[in-house]
Every structure is written in C-alpha cells, then in structure tokens.
Amino acid sequence: MNPGYEFSVLKGTEEMRFWENAIDAIPSATFFHTNDWLSFIEKRFQLKLKRVFIVNSGNIVGVLPLFERKYGFFKIAGSPLIAENNPYMGFAIKEKECIDLIIPSFDRFLKKEGIDFFRASFDHSDYNNHFVSQGYAVKEKKSFRIDLSKDEQLLWKGIGQKTRNMVRKAIKSNLVATEVSNGSMLDSYYEMSREVYARQRLPPLLEKEYYQDLYSSIIKKGFGKIFMVKNLGGDAVAGAIVLMHRDKAYYLDGASFRNYSNLGTNNLLQWFIIETLKESGFISYDMLGGDIPSIAKFKKSFGSINHPTVYVEKPVSVLSRFARKVYAKQKNLYKIFVYSMNRLKDRSKTNLL
Q1: CA-CA distance, 331 to 325, in Å (whole number)?
Q2: Gap between the Cα atoms of 143 and 299, Å rounded
Q3: What is the pTM of this model?
C-alpha cells in the first residue's frame, strides 16, 4: 500500500522548536531551511511565511518553507519567493521518502491553500524528472562547491595556476585578508557594493539596512562571518559574507573596489575563506550560483565542481495558467519586435554603405 503524504502548516510561534527538531533530523536540510534564516527573510522582505510539515503515518518526514504574497489577483507562493541572496529552499525530505508520491499531494495542498502560482529552487538536481512528469516547468541551475575534506596542500594544488599567481600578487602588494569580528565594516562593504552596481548604472540590489539586519539576525548569532581584504592603510578593498550550517558553508555575497581588482583582491579573499573554513572543520564550501560565464570561470578556478540545483515553477489555477501563456506570448512578440528592429537597423547601415 502506498504511503499517504499530507501537508500540515505549523501553528503558533511557541511551537518553533518542532520545526528546528525536524530540520535537525533531515540531513538534506540547509541553512536556508532554519528558523533563523526564515524569520530574517520574513521580516526583511515583509512576506507571509508558512512552515509546512510533510507528514506520513503521523510522522514528520520532511519540511517546506513557503512564502506567500499577493500580486494583483494572484496569490504567489515560493520557496524561496525572493531570490536575492536566497539561493534555494524547497522540499527537504528524508532519503527513504518517495518524491513521486509527495508531489501530487503537494499539488492538492496548493489548491486547498488557494495558491495560483508556485515556484521554488531546490538543492536537488535529481528531482528534475520527477517534477517534469508532474507538469512543472524545470530549469537546471549551477552551484559550485569545494570539497574541504581534502588536505590543504591538495586544495592549493587544485586551484588554477593563474589564480595562484593572483593570490601571490595580492600578498606581494601588501594586501591582507582578515575575518571581521563586528559589524563596523558594513559601511565600507556597502560602499563596495554600490560601486559594483554603479558600473552597470544600477542601484544596489540590496539596501544598506539589509546588511545591518543580516548582521544582527544571522552573523552576530554565529551563523555567518564577514571577510575582508585590506590595503596597507587598513582600508577595506574587497569583502564577502559567508554563512555556516552544520559542516557546510555558503558564499552569500561579495563586493570589491574595481581599482584594486587587478591586484588579485578577490583571489586572495576566496583563498583565505577556503583556508579559514578548512581550519574550522567545515567539509563543504558552496560558492553558489554561476550562471554568468565569467563568474562560473572565476569559481571553477578554485577547484570547485558544479553541483546542479533545480528551479521549478507551476501555474496552479486556471487563471494563472492563462496569464502565464499570455505572458509567454508577449515575451516572444517582444523578442520578435527587437529582432526585426535590429534587422532594419542593419539594412539601413548597409544601404548607407
């Protein structure tokens, strides 16, 4: 007889310990499933959070953090819903559980909750075919990871020759990598972030208050660290924020001043992070996304291996399925329009010649 999976929403903040106990019992759960992270995201982005248990025969066999927000007529749910510095969540289930039986039960749960559209990022690329067979749109994404269980000399040798040379260049240029023990350097970090986006004529992706809240809610509690590279005068020229959970670490955010980049600031910074995590007993360093080729190349140069993650989405209600089709057609029409305009420009240039 097939097990019957049910979805149950946690009621009341006084029962938060049940969620944390469930997380502790599921090896595949990440830091992004923990109460501390979920509460930070819920408050920072003003989202409605449902902590959902996956239950089988009265036993909790999995969890799903589900964030909700209304967009016009539509009720959207995501895990995560806000993607900025929030790489993946989704189902965290015990290994023996059957994802093929969980997904149909979850679809029924979405309809019961009145969800029009669902999306999620999972740290499980082996879920791909299961979601495709259940009518979900699936896209594989990249996440680069370093095995820190290796000897430090092997980690150093596993780095590309050019990257090693850039680390040496940074040291010879009197740049020093260090761990920051308080939030006093966040002002400098934010200025670096502002410069990164100013190069693209964009405002910073995240506000200064985000980093302040991140420090007080996450880093100060011991779930993360701030790393910096400083010049001879003691000024910060590159920085990174790394989160920690169990024996795994996650590269969440980074920024640097451009006029120091040719000295290997980011190369020195990442090698120092690897050394520090190794010495602290972590066995995995997840450098996260790398869908942009230049970023992927940089992360691969440290000997990291691509560990694919998966993004899924599904319009649940009839209205949302219709809206999704219209949106897709509009995007295609826009692409055709841009292509046609470019062709006309090319022809006009040819005629002028």
Answers
A1: 10
A2: 9
A3: 0.86
pLDDT 10s digits, 305-349? 999 899 999 998 877 776 666 655 555 543 443 444 455 444 444
Place of tokens 């292509």: 339
Give the DSSP letter string of 265-299: HHHHHHHHHHHHHHHTT--EEEEEE--SHHHHHHH
Cβ–Cβ under 8 Å, residues 49 and 11: no
For residue 230, with 0-12 CB atoms within 10 Å meaning exposed, 13-18 middle and 19 or more buried, which class applies?
buried
Beta bridge partners of 228: 178, 239
Do 144-306 and 5-141+309-337 have the same topology in CATH? Answer: yes
Phi/psi at 44 (nearest 5 deg)?
Answer: -65, -40
144-306 — its CATH code?
3.40.630.30
Fold of 5-141+309-337: Aminopeptidase (3.40.630)
**Widest CA span in the chain:** 76
Torsion sign across C-alpha atoms 216, 218, 219, 225: negative
Question: Is the separation of the CB atoms in 303 and 270 below 8 Å?
Answer: no
